[in-house]
Amino acid sequence: MPTLPSLRASGGDGADPGRDEVASLTFESVTKRFDDVVAVDALDLEIHDGEFMVLLGPSGCGKTTALRMIAGLEEITEGRLYIGDRVVNDVDPARRDVSMVFQSYALYPHMTVRRNIESPLLVRKYRVDGDGAPPRKLTKAERAARVDEAARVLGLTELLDRKPAALSGGQRQRVALARAFVGRPQAYLMDEPLSNLDAKLRAATRLELVDLHRRVQTTVVYVTHDQVEAMTMADRIAIMSAGRLQQVGTPQEVYDRPANLFVAQFIGTPPMNTLTGTVTTDGGTGPAVDVGHGRVPLPPGLTTRLEEGRPVVVGVRPEHLALSDEGPLEQKVRAVEWLGHECLVFGAIGDSPLVVRQTGLARLEPGGTARLVVDPAHVHVFDPETTERLP
Amino acid sequence: MTAEAVTSPAADRSPEVPRSRRRWLRRYSPREVLLALALLAPSIAVFVVFFYRPFLNLLNWGRFESRRNGAYFEDVGLAQYREALGSDDFREGLWHSVQFVLYTVPAGLVLGVLLAVAAHRRLRGIKVFQAIFSSTLASSTAVTSVIFFYLFNPVVGLIEANWLNDPDMAMVAVSISSIWQNMGLSFVIVLAGLQAVPDEVMEAALLDGYGAVRRLVRITLPLISPVLLFLLVVLVIFGLQAFAQIDIITKGGPVSATETLVFKINRLNRPDNIGIGAVYSIGLFLVTLVVTALQFAILERRVHYAR
């Protein structure tokens, strides 16, 4: 297998293989208002150099606005945005040294693939002569070399003379990526770049993007509403809702220790089950939560002192419930979905819907009942008022 | 292994679908032909009555030369065509028409594009300006012409020089009124074209460092080129057919400085000259046809039709 050259920008060609530019991105209580609507509300977020950061949330949560503020396509109402050490609030988009892959790809339909990829190199100035030298425009030969390299890496060499209309969706997406990569910017901004691809191609492209990121080692900020993309690609995920940052963490952190009920129910398919109840110490093996139709044990690591009778919300993921004849919870079974490798048992405890995930086939009839056991180590406790996780 | 995955485009090897064979090559059943004719009948009827038949009449009248001031006509065949189309009067009319087109079309196009680009943004109250800019489209040529007639009046108007009596400036004056009127049309059509350009494409250009002029020339204009071609063709035809503004503002004068072909055709529209008028009309038709065909032939290859 041929070794591919690094796409990273560095001083002289190959002279300095290490990271020479700090390209962290920092939001310092950044707010964006459109008239009366607060799209992003006092966002504090640090995206580390070289990190693959996914901004995740439902539509209208402010994730795209946050991305567009990094690009300079939206003005910042309040707060400060840093790229590296530089405040870029008032810096022209073309001078921020970032590139963007748009949801619609935003290719220039009247230009060939070659011209599309070359476009960012035509006007912008680049630091190509080492650290001391001022940035300059690239020569024609330099542009051609970069376009050819980007096209080769993304498998577009054969298509350079075509126009976007003659390309498939996946090929257009590659052109958009090549156009983003050709300028070797400090950060790549991606706005739902996979949403126009079919499921199979999306899965393949996810892997390629991760691989591409591994090789270029450049900061990526990736906006999506698809938690699968977030979980599979991100170094860290920033989950947003209603303009506010809910939690930042690695995929495992946000899955294992969701900071609040929103994150708990947004991450995971099917989402985490939540049951309201009160803390009790009566007759059982230890402190538990009485959810009306049974008891859910409290997790062993819980440091918050919960007094008797305190209302709480307990969360348990479907895979942390198991069918067992002696289980302390009773579920009314509404439907069983068999997916081949596993099955999902849909039902309810009292009025609260509840899903159980079980490997193999559960022999249950809709309308009957099932008894469940809970793995105490995977019980999450939330405050019903603040919806925050109780540590 | 992973690098392989990146370089191989195997994942999206979607086959190129061949364009379907042209349908009209297949045979139609008599029933289908009848149905097609029935559906086309109304428009065919309108074209026959108002276009094809009058056109044939014109061709026919062109053969007849008037004798004794239209007392009777003599069939002279193509002789009258040769004579009339070769006359200085026809050439003068043609030149004035070309002048009028050259004065009005480029200015109308450029102003329309500039106004539309200026008004194509999300600003509070921009609709008011859009309404104002497009209002000239809604004003009738007669009203516009009367307004400009008075604007060009050296006593009560804006300009003290007497352009309407100056053979060199009369055409400019008439053109200005037409430019003003065409501006609304250009504005509306270009604005509609601009609104069809995706925002993300313009944002990509912004990130690529394109300045305002470069964005306009390299991105916006190519993307709205079908609209511009349409406007060009329509404005040229309007220019070649302009009559009311000339009739109202200058009546073809001073002397014959603003007599365009259409104006001359109207002047010849009397029984004793109907044959020559018919020949002029055919001449104007041919000029329009050739100019329009040339525009398509030369420019359509450069037009980008988005798919």
The quaternary state of the protein chains shown equals heterodimer
What is the third-level CATH name, the topology of the largest domain in chain A?
A: Rossmann fold
SSE arrangement of chain B, N to C: HHEEHHHHHHHHHHH
> What class would the helix/strand composition of chain B place it in?
mainly alpha
Order of helices and strands of chain A: EEEHEEEHHHEHEHEEHHEEEEEEEEEE
How are the strands of the biggest sheet of chain B laid out side by side? 1-2
What is the name of the CATH superfamily of the domain at 92-251 in chain B? MetI-like
Tell me the total number of β-strands of chain A: 20
**Shape designation of chain B:** globular
The N- and C-terminal alpha carbons of chain A lie at a distance of 49 Å
Spatial order of strands in the largest sheet of chain A: 6-7-8-3-9-10
Structural category of chain A: alpha+beta
Domain unit count of chain A: 2
The low-pLDDT segments of chain A are 1-20
Strand content of chain B: under 5%
The level-1 CATH class of the largest domain in chain A: Alpha Beta
CATH topology term of the domain at 92-251 in chain B: MetI-like fold
- Could you estimate the helical fraction of the residues of chain B in percent? 55-70%
* Largest inter-chain contact set: A-B, 49 and 33 residues
> On the 0-100 scale, what is the average pLDDT of chain A?
86
CA-based gyration radius of chain B:
26 Å
